[in-house]
Amino acid sequence: MKMIYKIKNLFYKYMFGIFIKHNLIFIISFIVFIFLNIIENLLHFTNGRKENNKIFQFTMPKKRDMIKIVIIMVIFALLQGGITALFHYYITKHY
Question: Whole-angstrom Cα distance, residue 24 to residue 77?
């Protein structure tokens, strides 16, 4: 139980502290990730739905599938933004 508490405190101390100090980097990184990956994910979704090697025809996912795609993208965008802010924090602090 103490280990979980320590990990939680480290996460809050470093990740949220860095988000506050370097929120612009986090926000830009998050938005770029979401924008580029929504296009990529929709293309992958369409390619996975292609049947019998038909000509490429773009199709939008159903509402439930779109929600799943967006939830996964937001999770990874948060991670990517946090890691980018973390690297920026250490680079500016140490170099």
Answer: 14
Give me the amino acid identity at 58. Answer: F
- pLDDT tens digits, residue range 17-57? 555 555 777 778 888 888 888 888 888 887 776 666 667 67
**Two tokens at 55?**
């000509």
| Nearest CA among 35, 44, 45 for reference residue 73 | 35
The two structure tokens encoding residue 63: 């509402």
Per-domain boundaries in the chain: 2-94
| Contact between 85 and 29 (Cβ < 8 Å) | yes
For residues 74 and 22, what is the distance between their CA atoms, to the nearest angstrom? 19
Return phi, psi of residue 61, to 5°.
Answer: -70, 160
